[in-house]
Design the sequence.
């Protein structure tokens, strides 16, 4: 048996990278019997005799798994948000950040369309950028036709498995095509033959972009809190997590509890008021959620 990583899943086959080639494999029946199924990104043990299809024999424990797109073992997400058109929106940004943190996917905020801002707007955005950096996030500023974009992003993608995330209309597809030029060719070719564009990718593939692996999908755009419990929420906001260690009560939800370090930090300005308001709103959504069975 050899160890490898599934890079692509298509029509019941799994493709494992070996010395630059993709080995076509089937999953052993044992997985189906257990209700498991291999995912793109899985590290697996597989056997391959060099002639017929290989077989996936064992799936190693996953660090994490996303549902849309269905990928396992993701290190980080380039979270793409526009500075304008659509306007920069901190509550939507915070939703994505919280959901990604809950999956243990490291977010990197990529702001696009900075060239569309006037001076006043640039100043306002600059304050937010400083805020988010102080919270502990990496923020990358990009503008149209930025010649340094690829090398900047390459630095962040190096040695990692990444996905793109973010609302639609912010330039995710453009960014994806910049990072994976062969994708644009593929999409253009398919849309020409089918007479329609975009969304031609029905499967997910991890593409080796030289520095790291990137999922070839504009993908992750989920921002509901279905899988987060109310006690877990503050751990998904890094500055809340740090400061809540000093709350008097364990399991403090930072709402009505006495001697709450988070509320004190909001008073003193160490935690931004808008972050606390978003936290309260997200907490309420989780509390109001219908129980799942
Ligand atoms: Zn508290």
Sequence:
């Amino acid at each position: 048996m050899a160890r490898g990583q599934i890079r692509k899943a298509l029509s019941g086959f799994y493709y494992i990278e070996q010395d630059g080639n993709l080995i076509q494999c089937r999953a052993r029946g044992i997985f189906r019997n257990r209700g498991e199924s291999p995912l793109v990104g899985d590290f697996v043990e597989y056997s391959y005799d060099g002639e017929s299809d290989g077989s996936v024999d064992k799936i190693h424990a996953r660090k994490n798994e996303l549902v849309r797109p269905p990928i396992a073992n993701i290190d980080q997400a380039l979270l793409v948000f526009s500075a304008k058109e659509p306007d920069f929106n901190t509550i939507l940004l915070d939703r994505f950040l919280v959901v990604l943190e809950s999956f243990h996917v490291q977010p990197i905020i990529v702001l696009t369309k900075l060239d569309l801002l006037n001076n006043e707007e640039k100043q306002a955005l600059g304050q937010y950028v400083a805020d988010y950096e102080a919270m502990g996030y990496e923020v990358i500023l990009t503008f149209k036709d930025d010649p340094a974009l690829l090398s900047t992003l390459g630095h962040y993608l190096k040695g990692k498995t990444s996905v793109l995330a973010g609302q639609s209309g912010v330039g995710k597809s453009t960014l994806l095509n910049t990072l994976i030029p062969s994708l644009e060719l593929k999409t253009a070719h398919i849309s020409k033959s089918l007479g329609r564009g975009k969304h031609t990718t029905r499967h997910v593939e991890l593409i080796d972009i030289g520095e790291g692996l990137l999922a070839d999908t504009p993908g992750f755009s989920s921002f509901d809190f279905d899988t987060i419990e109310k006690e877990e929420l503050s751990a998904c906001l890094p500055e809340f997590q740090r400061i809540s260690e000093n709350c008097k009560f364990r399991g403090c939800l930072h709402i009505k509890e006495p001697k709450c370090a988070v509320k004190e930090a909001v008073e003193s300005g160490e935690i931004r008021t808008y972050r606390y308001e978003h936290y309260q709103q997200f907490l309420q959504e989780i509390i109001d959620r219908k129980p799942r069975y």
The radius of gyration is 21 Å.
